Amino acid sequence: MMPIDLVKKSEQVTFILEKKGVSNAPTMRVCAALDVSGSMDDEIRDGSLQKAVDQLGGVAIVFDDNNEIDVWTFNTRSSYIGTWTPADHEVFVKKNRIGAGGGTSYAPFINAIVDKMFPAAGTVARELVSETKGFMGFGKK
User: Fold this and answer.
1) Whole-structure pTM value
2) Helix (H) or strand (E) holding 33
3) Angle 83-77-81 (CA atoms, 0-180°, nearest 5)?
4) For the sheet containing 78-84, what is the strand order?
5) CB of 105 closer than 8 Å to CB of 74
6) Is-contact 59 16, C-beta < 8 A?
7) What DSSP assignment string belongs to 76-95?
8) N or C: less crowded end of the chain, CB within 10 Å?
9) Tens digits of per-residue pLDDT, 101-118?
10) For residue 135, what pLDDT is reported?
11) Assign residue 97 a region: left if phi > 0, alpha if psi is -120 to 50, beta otherwise?
12) pLDDT in tens, 50-89
């Protein structure tokens, strides 16, 4: 049985979709990349990151065929953490010992997600990322 709070979150997602005229939500895989750079330390400690993951859990219940979220963390590197399920409501961050540290780099987690979720497109996406400079095309590679 799902926690009542999680049921309410999924009902909110359904309500918003119905308001927009979407009566049957498409089935898709839901994934998340969680920033665990040093600047996120306060948000991890005060539970904000856990609340964000649980909010996304409401989305997963509506869209994902098995009610899961594939989760990566990133700072200067990217790590696949595994899947969030309704059983992880309110405990995912603590259970997986997610902590903050380091800088922020977007390319590693984007590549990791593309490689896992869209393996056939991985080569094309990797070429696009390696051809651009830094974040949003600015700075160093």
Assistant:
1) 0.78
2) strand 30-35
3) 10
4) 30-35, 69-74, 78-84
5) yes
6) no
7) SSEEEEEEE-GGGTTTHHHH
8) N
9) 999 998 888 888 888 887
10) 54
11) left
12) 999 999 999 999 999 999 999 999 999 999 999 999 999 9
